[in-house]
Amino acid sequence: MDAIILQILNGLDKGSAYALIALGLTLIFGTLGVVNFAHGALFMLGAFCAVTLSRILSLSHVVIDESRKDFLGNPMKVEVPYLHEWFGPEVGATIIDWSVPLSILFAIPVMILIGVIMERGLIKHFYKRPHADQILVTFGLAIVLQEIIKYYYGANPIPTPAPEAFAGSFDFGVLIGFDANSIIYPYWRLVYFGFAMVLVAAVFSFLQFTTFGMVVRAGMADRETVGLLGINIDKRFTIMFGIAAAVAGLAGVMYTPINPPNYHMGMDFLVLSFVVVVVGGMGSLGGAVAAGFLLGVLESLASMGWVIDLVPGINQIIIYLVAIVILLTRPRGLMGRKGVMEE
């Protein structure tokens, strides 16, 4: 039982990434009708926002430290971060230590800007084109973006640690009545799950309870009628593309301590996220989130040793098997609107 609970926890944090990426994908498909194969690249760009801010905060210069001597007795040259001089060693070290959470503030405007530029500069020209054309052009854009990241940051993963306060693990088993040391789980993975819940709630609240969100939902249901009312729905949809990009970017920012960023991480999540969208139901925001967590947990449970011994390789294909079964029995997905993908 403790092994199952541990795998469920692993599945929830993996499902959190699936759900957030799929949520952004569904926002774009639901508002603009665009199949955006560059969405995984937005997840990657968010992760590298965290890497970039970490490097900026760690910028330093060389000073002579009279209190330290080399083997010849000469004062040593040491690297001192600028933040240590500006705010003092303790405050400066704390800011650098918390670079990943602080990257949220950095990534939001950057990712919204990237999303708006993508939509206005490229995506808008493919609204009325077949989905095959949209897939080809956005997939090509994803490859371009990852090669740019590879050129400037290199091909190797870049470790980006969580704040020291969340660097360890805690005994989750004791919390739910199990023996000590039976279920040890990293703090940051729980932080990521909690962050995903807050972000999902924020997106749904924005769409449900704000005037802007209500107009967007109306536009998703009947774009032409909303336009006839004199509302510039295209402008609002452009903003929603930026918001969807920010959601994917923030998912990447907070995932960096779990999986060190590399230039192909977006592609690693892209296909799985599209499977999540299709299983949840094309255009269904709730379906995308529910399917993300469901498939994340199933994938994690299928990775248990006894399951792999029973069905070798099942952990690699379980998500696709579930997708096949659901689409054969319910083509519109778990929570898709009736008629969608059922023609």
From TrEMBL:
Family: Belongs to the binding-protein-dependent transport system permease family. LivHM subfamily.
Organism name: Hoeflea alexandrii
Keywords from the UniProt entry: Amino-acid transport, Cell membrane, Membrane, Transmembrane, Transmembrane helix, Transport
Cellular compartment(s): Cell membrane
Alphabetical list of InterPro entries matching this protein: ABC_transp_permease (IPR001851), BCAA_transport_permease (IPR052157)
Highest taxon above the source species: Bacteria
Transmembrane segments: 16-35, 42-64, 104-123, 191-216, 236-257, 269-298, 304-328
One Pfam family it belongs to: BPD_transp_2
Membrane topology annotation: Multi-pass membrane protein
Protein name: Branched-chain amino acid ABC transporter permease
Major subcellular location class: membrane
